[in-house]
Amino acid sequence: MHRDNRTAACAVPLFPFLLMLVFALMRSFRFPRSTASIIKGLALMVSIIATSASAQRTATPPADGVYDLLVGTYTGPKSEGIDVYRFDTKTGAATRVSGAQTVNPSYLVASRDGRFVYAVNELPGDNGPATQRGGISAFAFDATSGQLTFLNKVSSDGNDPCYLSLSPDGRYLTTANYSVAADPGGSFAVFPLEADGKLGTAVLSVHHEGGGPVKGRQDNAHVHSTVFSPDGQYLFAQDLGADKLFVYRYTPDGSRGLFGPTERRYVEMEAGSGPRHLVFAPDGKHAYLTSELAATVTVFRYSDGNLTPIQTLPMTKPGFNGQVAAAAIHVSPDGRFVYASNRGDANEIVVYAVDPANGHLHEVGRQSSLGQAPREFSIDPTGHWLIVGNQNSDTAYVFRRDVQSGLLDANPTRLDIGAPVDFVWVSPS
After folding, report:
1. DSSP string, 82-137
2. Which contiguous run of DSSP H or E holds residue 23?
3. Which Pfam families match (predicted)?
């Protein structure tokens, strides 16, 4: 299963074996203290590599190049929930095979083995009662037939859940609740995952406080994404309302609580910028952030739970005076390009090339999404295609992607889908 930078983890048998071998050698031989320290360091490296590999590895690509593509939507007259397509990465053709009814599955994530799919139920939405909690739904997924089977649903412990992330060890699911009516301000909640794929009720809910200068959008905190670090030891919660990236240490053994604040606690962004989505580079050394209200992309250097901003770029063309609303951000599979979507009056995908020496970005192109409100998009596991959903136009477009230049072909294939807003790739093999 491939999920851009959202893949869940499962055990990687080789790494535990190597770790046990290292410690066995330590017991069998009497190394000098300095040598033993080196070996302990190597053991730690093996552990970190195991976690990182677990989080980033994908299933073996199917021989025929055909993946299952799951599309999350806002439900309404033209959509009932999650649509499942068969996507041929050799031709770019997509054929609908099934669907599952569920309310406002605006964000999806699949287990690394592709057996389970989790969806937010983004409620109450714009028209529902403020007291109504959102939900998280679990499904079993048969990748061979493309069929989803509902397992269970739990409260998201907040309002308007809009993001999901699986811990690298596969034990927990986190969600970003954009708002919490009973306690104004956003939160993130943590749910245990059972062996049969079902969700347990929330074991932790963390509320943020604060706000920003943009009236109506930053009157209080609004958590918009929860992203695990590549080493699996930290969780970053991007708060659009508070202009902060909160940092939590993940300690599943309970020695410091399940999630606890780090000494630094948060990275403060420019006032009124509205940080939205964060994504890490494949090498784990850099991260990229979209700030929705400012329509910018920020580059960070990453090390051991610390994000250091090193560059910020505008997403709009010089002289652009329309409305902006930066949204999704993803990195190409080879790590050479970063893509970000901008809604408002721009409605386009901006393409940046990555400088391998320092992670800095420079713009190399931009492509109209050919519709309104490109909230999310995704690059297929082969890197040859990019699909973007136009929420307000009930369309998705499949663009051929040049892996050398990073540019998108201007003649894409159109798919008619009601309010498409998220995409997940699953390998049937």
Report:
1. EEEEEEETTT--EEEEEEEE-S----EEE-TTSSEEEEEE--STTTS-TT---EEE
2. helix 14-28
3. Lactonase
Count other Cβ atoms within 10 Å, centred on residue 225: 28
DSSP state string for 279-332: EE-TTSSEEEEEETTTTEEEEEEEETTEEEEEEEEESSPTT--S---EEEEEE-
Report residue 17: phi and psi, to 5°.
Answer: -60, -45
Torsion over CA of 68, 74, 80 and 81, rounded to 10 degrees? 40
pTM summary value: 0.87
Express each pLDDT in 76-113 by its tens digit: 999 999 999 999 999 999 999 999 999 999 999 999 99
Token pair 């010089």 is found at: 318
Structure tokens at 107: 């964000």
Q: Across the beta sheet with 172-179, what order do the strands follow?
A: 159-166, 172-179, 187-192, 204-207
Q: What is the pLDDT of residues 33-63, one digit of tens each?
A: 444 444 434 433 433 343 333 333 345 788 8
Show me where the domains of the chain are located.
Answer: 1-57, 62-426
Distance between CA atoms of residues 239 and 224, nearest Å: 6
Between strands 81-88 and 286-291, the pairing is unpaired
